[in-house]
Amino acid sequence: MHWYSILPPLIAIVIVFWRKEVILALVMAILSAEWLLAFQNGSEVLFSGSIASIERVIEIVTSGGNSRILLFSLLIGALLAYMRNSGGVTATVELLINKGVAKSKRQVGLLTMFTGIVVFIESNLSVLASGILARGLFDKFKMSRARLAYVIDSTSAPICILILLNGWGAFILGLLSNYEMEQSAVSVLWGTIPFNFYAIIALVIVLYTILADKVHGPLKEADKELVKLEGEQQQITGTKARFMLLPLLSMILGMIGFMLWTGDGVLANGSGSKSVLYATVFACFVAYILLLTSKQNSHKELVETGFKGMGEILPLVTIVLFSLTLGASLKELGTGIFVAGLVGDYLPLSLVVPVLFLAGAVMSFTTGTSWGTFAILIPIGVPLIETLGLPPSFVIAAILGGGVFGDHCSPISDTTAVSSIASGCDLLTHVRTQMPYALFGGALTFIGYFVVSLMII
Q1: What DSSP line would sit under 141-209, residue for residue?
Q2: What's the whole-number average pLDDT of the chain?
Q3: Which of 21, 225, 340, 441 is least buried, going by the fewest C-beta atoms within 10 A?
Q4: Alpha-carbon radius of gyration of the chain
């Protein structure tokens, strides 16, 4: 793979931080990636590459899995509009405060984190459930949407990569099952839990933020500004909490049911993209029926509300689309393989695992996908385990943690965009406010892997 394969993600990141325009950054990165592919193939660069960029977007949209992600992201906008405009959000906030479940900032933070942990079966659902539930509560207690985005994003992925009874677990197990090792693939996978330092540290930092009620750096500034999603109406009168709680519960239970259904009775084998879409459609249907039968809204008003909600969220859905497109272009260009090759064959044993963690982080950051990072780095890590006699779970844990770390820092990650959707926070604000926390956790993790490598290798 060529060195220039790293240029498109670098272009995206530079434009994001220079112009503060994510869509422009993604478009330029996609174009540059396709121009480089045209150059590699000996085609006319500008024309062929530009046409190929359009076709790459079409390729993403026509993929079943990607289409489901885009559709559920749009439908979340409709669901949020139903909950908000019905007065269900305001009523739920009032109910939780009156019941004493959420009568302080700490309780609100703990409730949000607890929801994200309990809904561990799918990272997007974990983010959505906890984000939707906590939006009104964070507003009520004068905590910014950026803080909410940080809490749900830095809870969901770490808890999903630790518990592993989900799509991630099944995917990683499938990758490990291709190799003959002394331990079974299942034993290696479960053994990663105590060694996944980044996930553990990220959760500890979130817990500290909640219990101490302290935020630092850009997140402190965001809390002062209290930036909210445009169009959010705090003044809506509370009606019935069931207008929010029943659709939300329907989405969570529906997700579990559809994961079991698509996995033939095995939760971990279920399809995350199918299940989250079906569950979101079901939740929208429940919200629609509730509001229609309550005679609060007519069918025509509900349709208009739904489309208005989808319209509000369309810019973020566009970012998700372009993030997926860029990921496909970079895969074709070989960016991930080039980054993985930087690990090198001549590192001291004590640096192999820390560098694998860094390689996973850089790859995930530049490509915007932790799934792709796992798919590329695990086939590199397992031969190192076999040839150098490294502890299998220790090596795999570093790769998994690196993928999540890079994803937390990446402005071109689709999961970062979904966290912004769930919390109602501007995408760049979320990236800017979460990054110092992620970098701090990543630095501690790198040191931890180096120290432990000296002790056990």
Answers
A1: TT--HHHHHHHHHHHHHHHHHHH--SHHHHHHHHHHTTS--SS-HHHHHHHTGGG-HHHHHHHHHHHHH
A2: 86
A3: 225
A4: 22
Q: Which residues are CB-neighbours of 222 under 8 A, at least 6 positions away?
A: 144, 146, 147, 429, 433
Q: What percent of the chain has pLDDT over 90?
A: 39
In order of 117, 167, 246, 294, 399, the CA distances from 254 in angstroms are: 17, 16, 11, 23, 32
The more confidently predicted of residues 206 and 335 is: 206
* Token pair for 413: 């990650």
**Residue (of 186, 198, 121) closest to 160 by Cα position:** 121
Largest CA distance in the chain: 71
Average pLDDT over residues 351-359: 91
Reported as a single tens digit per residue, the pLDDT across 222-250 is: 888 875 544 444 456 768 889 988 998 89
Q: Where are the alpha helices (DSSP H) in 226-298?
A: 242-262, 272-293
- CA separation, residue 111 to residues 31, 103, 131 (Å): 43, 11, 11
- Per the structure block, which two tokens stand in for 77? 């906008």
